[in-house]
Specification:
By secondary structure, the protein is an alpha/beta fold. The protein contains 8 helices and 13 strands. Helix 7 packs parallel to helix 8. The longest helix has 15 residues.
């Protein structure tokens, strides 16, 4: 079976530099400051692109932290800077899609490094996968990194991310028993996905994801079951579910309704005719525990567990 080959990022060592950028919305200055302080206290240098909090609460760039051209150039500069080993998004919210027609993904692929984020960052995680570069769905600087140290879920999330980026952790989900929504024959595939509504928004664009032999990870927050069904149905009608190796859902916080079918019945309805397994319960997404999911690595399911078969990092 042919498995897609992806360019891997570099190992992150203590004392090296983490790039921080807000490719979507601006973030609260105090939370950004706390997140950066956490990274520095953990032993890393931090290089901040543009000013992620300058436009917080303002609409000069609509919903975003800066102009599309400025954000795109800043992200390309972080990829091109040899001193920057990893890039972590400051915040999600909205606006990353504006960068797609401006970014030179071939250029980014020549200096591959891990870009990490979630929510609206799904746009860039997926586009990097389409360009053949591994990315990581995980905590962001003004999010979990900025939480109080007493927040054990946030601390566990960021510790796992830093462990994955340092090569100490390959599979953060080894001990996680998933809930099976639908049985099927497990097969090896490559992980990809992200936030469902953001991922579905790529349909019909030049950056529409190609999912042959993929294990698709999806998460969502605050969407009612009928809206979950709508997004999934759009992907299904576009043929995106036809050649998957499996599906695993992460956080579905707030995806409920007082009456009608629940979200799990919706998921079962969408995938009932496919032969691969569908699971839920991966602790990743818009929930307190948001463990990192590497996209572009080979994986499979075994004994209702997600098995990640390779490191997201290069050996060099």
């Amino acid at each position: 079976m042919k498995i897609h080959k992806f360019k891997k990022g570099q190992k992150l060592n203590k004392g090296e530099t983490i790039g921080v950028i807000a490719p979507s919305s601006a973030c609260d200055k105090n939370r950004l400051t706390r997140g950066i302080a956490f990274l520095k206290a953990a032993g890393f240098k931090v290089q901040v692109a543009l000013n992620p909090s300058k436009m917080y609460g303002k609409d000069s760039h609509l919903f975003s932290s800066d102009s599309p051209k400025a954000r795109a150039k800043a992200l390309e500069d972080l990829f091109a800077d040899d001193s920057v080993k990893v890039i972590i998004s400051a915040r999600g919210a909205y606006g990353a899609a504006e960068l797609l027609p401006i970014l030179d993904f071939k250029k980014l692929g020549k200096t591959p490094k891990i870009f990490c984020g979630f929510s609206d960052a799904t746009i860039l995680l997926s586009a990097l996968n389409s360009a053949g570069v591994i990315s990581v769905h995980g905590p962001m600087v003004s999010g979990a990194f900025a939480e109080d140290e007493k927040n054990k879920a946030a601390l566990t999330s960021v510790e796992n991310l830093l462990g994955l980026l340092s090569g100490e952790i390959i599979n953060p989900f080894e001990s996680i028993k998933l809930c099976r929504i639908k049985s099927g024959k497990a097969a090896e595939g490559w992980l990809t996905g992200g936030n469902l509504s953001v991922f579905a928004a790529l349909l019909g664009t030049p950056w529409e994801p190609q999912l042959e032999q993929a294990i698709l990870f999806l998460e969502e927050t605050g969407e009612k079951p009928y809206r979950i069904h709508r997004h999934l149905l759009s992907l299904k009608l576009a043929g995106k579910f036809d050649n998957l190796s499996g599906v695993v859902f992460g956080g579905l916080d707030g995806c409920m309704h007082t009456t009608g079918p629940d979200v799990f019945k919706v998921i079962d309805d969408i995938f009932k005719d496919f032969k691969y397994p569908v699971f839920c319960g991966l602790p990743a997404g818009h929930e307190p525990l948001n463990l990192p999911v590497p996209f572009g690595v080979r994986a499979t399911f075994k004994d209702s567990r997600l098995v990640i078969l390779e490191s997201a990092l290069s050996k060099n």
